[in-house]
């Protein structure tokens, strides 16, 4: 048995039916009990995103910057490379299941970020500290589970989303598109990461607030242009995505006969990799926000999943299916998306857009996950060993450029799944806190505006 096949077996076990049911069940529960909050409160959430809260409690960064830090960690290779690997692993139907996990995940992310604000504390260094390890300890009283989450969080930062997939995608995309040697890109990116992470969350948030919105708009705009240029093929592409979600063999004319479970696993695991709903990472960034209302920040954080998967991942997925790039032999990773954008635009400029987008998306993901892992490390060991943590993180960033692509994604999936389990247990255990906080907020909001806001009534 090879190393890849060994870890692949572990991956299949971790992402088996129990975890899929736990993820889906948590999302379904909060969707129902919160009255479809991801639909009816999305306009309010988007409004909050661009308005300043009156009398907000002092935090480390603004609510918008906190979201950008979270988006920096989520909008990355999962949106460009991850979507391609999901479709290649499970066919176009994987995109449909990414939509489902994103829809349910919006309610999950709302709940976990609400709890992050509810149970956050100010640490000895004066920074706001929060996230699953704090609401597990302070809300559930299960210190051992909180420590387990923190350990898994560090593993994800070191071996999962935080390092290997991002740096590997950056360096190989730069080589394929601009013919920059992998070692050169690795040195440059590692140096820049080292310079920025030493500045802490404020510097990370500042960089993310500038880069993430600009690159997301540019990437989505390019995808829309491709759809317009190829509008005649668009209906067939969407129908293939939906049909192959339930009849996978349709994607291949019966040649490979993928099972439905395989398609679901591919869509769910890559969807979670991309938007991180239920993973417990976004609450760590949300806890640093300047706000006095946990519900408000929960709503703002919920938009992250909408923007990441419903918008950006959908753009990538439709372009890949529309152009047929997903089923082109001999292509893997970023090369699949490069081919799709080149073919869709009818020019090599498409690959340039993808590579530049990937460069900035993946770079900011590295920064965001360094912060997540750092907060988990501080929770376990205190501030004294933080220099060691940063040194190891920087070293792993440098190494990730030279690892095998398949092994990288398998390792990332495994540690992601392990990190999600303690967080989902906490969300279920603290479900009544989420529901009561939500009821209280919207009741107060209705009273303040003398308006019969029926949201509170919709919550069962």
Structure characterization notes:
By secondary structure, this protein is mainly α. It has helices spanning 3-14, 17-33, 37-40, 42-49, 63-74, 77-90, 93-118, 132-140, 143-159, 164-178, 182-197, 200-229, 234-246, 260-275, 282-286, 294-323, 334-345, 349-381, 386-400, 405-429, 431-448, 455-458; strands spanning 121-122, 128-129. Helix 7 crosses helix 13, helix 12 packs parallel to helix 16 and helix 18 packs antiparallel against helix 19.
List the defining traits of the structure above.
single chain, 22 helices, 460 residues
Helix content: over 70%
Order of helices and strands: HHHHHHHEEHHHHHHHHHHHHHHH
Using the CA coordinates, give the radius of gyration. Answer: 21 Å
State the helix count: 22
Sum up the overall morphology in one term. Answer: globular
Q: Beta-strand level of the residues, as a percent range?
A: under 5%
Cα separation of the termini: 51 Å
Average pLDDT taken over every residue: 84
Spatial strand arrangement across the major sheet: 1-2
Query: Helix/strand-derived class?
Result: mainly alpha
Oligomer classification: single chain
Low-confidence stretches: 253-257
Largest sheet: 2 strands, antiparallel
Q: Based on DSSP secondary structure assignment, what is the total number of beta strands?
A: 2
């Amino acid at each position: 048995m090879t190393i890849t096949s060994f870890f692949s077996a572990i991956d299949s076990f971790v992402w088996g039916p129990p975890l899929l049911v736990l993820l889906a069940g948590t999302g379904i529960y909060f969707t129902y009990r919160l009255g479809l909050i991801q639909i009816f409160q999305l306009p309010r959430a988007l409004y909050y995103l661009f308005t300043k809260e009156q009398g907000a409690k002092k935090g480390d960064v603004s609510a918008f910057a906190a979201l950008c830090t979270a988006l920096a960690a989520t909008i990355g290779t999962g949106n460009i490379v991850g979507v391609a690997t999901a479709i290649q692993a499970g066919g176009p139907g994987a995109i449909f299941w990414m939509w489902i996990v994103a829809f349910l995940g919006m309610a999950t992310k709302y709940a976990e970020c609400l709890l992050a604000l509810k149970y956050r504390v100010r640490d000895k260094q004066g920074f706001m500290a929060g996230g699953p390890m704090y609401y597990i300890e302070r809300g559930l009283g299960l210190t051992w589970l909180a420590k387990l989450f923190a350990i898994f969080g560090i593993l994800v930062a070191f071996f999962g989303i935080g390092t290997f997939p991002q740096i590997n995608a950056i360096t190989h995309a730069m080589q394929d598109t601009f013919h920059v040697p992998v070692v050169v890109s690795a040195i440059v990116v590692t140096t820049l990461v080292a310079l920025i992470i030493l500045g802490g969350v404020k510097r990370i948030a500042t960089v993310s607030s500038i880069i993430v919105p600009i690159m997301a708009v540019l990437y989505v705009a390019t995808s829309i242009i491709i759809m317009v240029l190829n509008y005649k093929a668009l209906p067939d592409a969407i129908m293939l995505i939906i049909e192959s979600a339930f009849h996978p063999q349709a994607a291949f004319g019966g040649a490979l006969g993928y099972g439905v479970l395989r398609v679901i696993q591919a869509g769910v695991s890559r969807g979670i990799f991309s938007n991180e709903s239920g993973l417990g990472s976004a609450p760590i960034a949300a806890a640093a926000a300047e706000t006095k209302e946990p519900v408000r920040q929960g709503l703002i954080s919920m938009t992250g999943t909408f923007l990441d998967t419903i918008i950006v991942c959908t753009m990538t997925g439709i372009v890949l299916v529309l152009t047929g790039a997903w089923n082109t032999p001999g292509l893997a990773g970023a090369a699949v998306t490069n081919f799709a954008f080149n073919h869709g635009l009818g020019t090599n400029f498409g690959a340039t857009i993808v590579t530049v987008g990937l460069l900035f998306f993946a770079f900011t993901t590295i920064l965001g996950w360094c912060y997540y892992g750092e907060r988990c490390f501080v929770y376990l060991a205190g501030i004294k060993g933080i220099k060691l943590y940063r040194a190891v993180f920087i070293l792993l960033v440098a190494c990730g450029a030279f690892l095998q692509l398949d092994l990288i994604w398998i390792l990332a999936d495994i540690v992601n799944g392990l990190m999600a389990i303690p967080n989902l247990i906490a969300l279920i255990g603290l479900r009544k806190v989420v529901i009561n906080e939500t009821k209280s907020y919207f009741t107060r909001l209705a009273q303040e505006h003398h308006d019969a806001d029926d949201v509170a009534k919709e919550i069962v």
